[in-house]
Amino acid sequence: MTGAPPPPRPLRRWRAGAAGTPTPHRSGLEPAYGPVWWVGLAVGGAALAHGALGLVRDAMATVPPAWATWLLGVLVVHDLVLVPVVFAVAHALRRAPAAVRPEARAALVVSGVCVLVTLPALVGGGRATQPGNTSVLPSDYAANLALLLGLIWTVAAALALTRALRGRRRRGDRPAGRSPRRVRG
């Protein structure tokens, strides 16, 4: 036989725990639910229940059908636009040098959050509710967002450059044509 197929990978990855007892590995397929997860579930569930009750209780002000339409639109945009864009950017980021990937990932996450937070102001939805009121959304949000994104990526580039230079010093890399200094002792 020239090449037998490799054996199937196990569904669980185990590592030795206290006194040699097997425990599920965090990178394995089984999730590890700790106390922080359960507290987060309780707090998040309570916040979700409070919001749903407020939506129904104040139906005259919240207009649940309009809210449901908005929620459905957000879910569709998330699944059909945001997720494919994230996957495409992540795939493109794999081609980036390994030295800049952590900073690029952080800058992408922070940039994405800033764009999502700024999106309602960019669209200008509040202006339609108060026509003629110049104090509603008075700034140039597109220019401010561009400035903020430029700052984020400048900081990320500076951090990547600093880390790369520190790594060169630790490895002892020197520019070509220079001999190492002799230490007299």
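The record above closes out task 2.4. Task 2.5 opens with a second protein, given below.
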Amino acid sequence: MRKILCGFVLALAGPGFAEMAPVADRVAEQNKLFDEFYETGLKNSPERATAYGDYRYNNLLGQYSLKEIARQHVEADDFLRRLKAIPTDGMGDKDLLSHRVMQRQIEREDINYELKNYEMPENSITVFIPGWPICRFRCLSIPCSITRITFPGYIKSRACWRRRLR
């Protein structure tokens, strides 16, 4: 009876193990997905692409309509679905970490979409004041905690506001 049960379990599990692609192929597929995700991010945010030094999208402006935000959400869900379809069994530590980080990032974007963060005019880093031109150095930066690292940026933002208020 035991042999029959073991044979039955192996017969059911065998095709699942046979279909799994080699680790190198899965890592290559994952890296291809990462590249596509990065390129899509640049295309969806052309100002960021220019800031990174990629001038292919200089003729475009970022789209912030509700329709575009919904399209980007569907696009991110597709990336998440494709990422989850890549098995991580046998991957190295770096590849497994990259997989988990990207998955968590996209899941966080889903949560932000559900909470409608795109409707919020301000966040914890910068405050948007309608009608005021946006200063090049993020004039109204709200420091969460002033540390040695953020203090120069804090001083620069205060100086920017002093110039603007004169």
